[in-house]
Amino acid sequence: MTDVIDGDAVAADVREGLADAIGTLDDAGVTPTLATVLMSDDPASETYVSMKQQDCAEVGIEARDVELDPEAPAEELFETVADLNADPAVNGILVQMPVPDHVEDRDVIRAIDPAKDVDGFHPENVGRLVAGDPVFKPCTPHGVLKLLDAAGVETEGADVTIVGRSNIVGKPLANLLLQKADDGNATVTVCHSRTEDVSEKTRRADVVIAAAGVPELVDGSMLTDGTVVIDVGVNRVERDGESTLVGDVDFESAKSKARAITPVPGGVGPMTRAMLLYNTVKATSRQAE
Ligand code: GUN
User: Fold this and answer.
1) Is residue 145, in this structure, part of any structural domain at all?
2) How many domains are contained in the chain?
3) Cα 271 to the chain's mean position, in Å?
4) Which atom of ligand 1 is nearest the CA belonging to 272?
């Protein structure tokens, strides 16, 4: 029987685990506060930000909602970030990506105070992660590690193949899995659009993590029996005239081979959201020290 890993349940456990830290902060008169900045009218981005705010409310984190006109000059975004950096009541800052084309993503990321960078995207935080001394682990990679742990999957000595090399998922995940740490010690292969034979790399893996942003890229024919499959993809596609959500894994064929697999939705997605709350509480505790 294939284990379908329940991301909603593991995310609920993570949220519950935050209650003590939030209670301690509350006793000290501190309410963790996350500022979300949205400079987009993309409906998906709007939905993501509003879900993050709802999650905050549920666990006792205050959410500050900042919305900027997507046509506004870049300076407006940089001034907003500078104000939030300087505001001691704001503990975490999340600028929803992508920002409009006239604003450079990497400049925005660099503008955020690393101590409030709950995404873990700032070069200082990326550097610390690569050096084996992370402060804020990026939310999706951290969520994937928690899911593997909850599913009883041992990474030590395992062959892990990641399909996708993004700055948000593939690269930080590869670094975390490589580390000489509890949730590391894996042998990691990272595939990308120029990889010659992806199937050869996925077939020899104990764990396959699909994070390429390509609908149903990984199917059962690319897997060996007993593989653990983690699907990071969230792709909206048209099926039989209806809009539906699929991952980067062809779920049914992959499930027939997998020992354990995450569904879409209900797998990695809820974990990403839970780890954002975790990082916000962590940022608050560090700032309160
Ligand atoms: N856009 C898509 N995913 C993310 C994320 O994890 N953080 C931010 N800031 N923007 C995103």
Assistant:
1) yes
2) 2
3) 7
4) 6
ipTM of the complex, rounded to two decimals:
0.97
Is the bond into 138 cis (omega within 30 degrees of 0)? no
- Whether residues 95 and 184 share a domain: the answer is no
One domain for residues 143 and 104: no
Which of 52, 201, 255, 257 is flagged as catalytic?
A: 52
Listed as ranges, residues in the chain with pLDDT below 70 are none
- Residue 101 has a pLDDT of 98
Give yes or no: residues 156 and 71 share one domain.
no
What pLDDT, on the 0 to 100 scale, is given for residue 100? 98
The 10s digit of each residue's pLDDT in 129-171 is 999 999 999 999 999 999 999 999 999 999 999 999 999 999 9
Q: Are residues 146 and 207 in the same domain?
A: yes
* Protein residue with least CA distance to atom 8, ligand 1: 96
Cβ neighbour number for residue 118 with a 10 Å cutoff: 27
Q: Binding site for NADP(+): what residues are annotated?
A: 164-166, 234
Distance in Å, CA 97 to ligand 1 centroid = 5
Whether residue 45 sits in one domain with residue 161: no
Determine the residue of 34, 46, 96 to mutate for testing ligand 1's pocket, defined as the one with the most ligand atoms within 8 A of the Cβ atom: 96
Q: How far is C-alpha 80 from the chain's CA centre?
A: 24
Residues 166 and 221 in one domain: yes
Q: Which two tokens stand for residue 36?
A: 């979300």
pTM of this prediction?
0.97
Q: Is 52 a catalytic residue?
A: yes
Alpha-carbon gap, residue 18 to 276, rounded angstroms: 11
Domain coverage including residue 60: 29-115
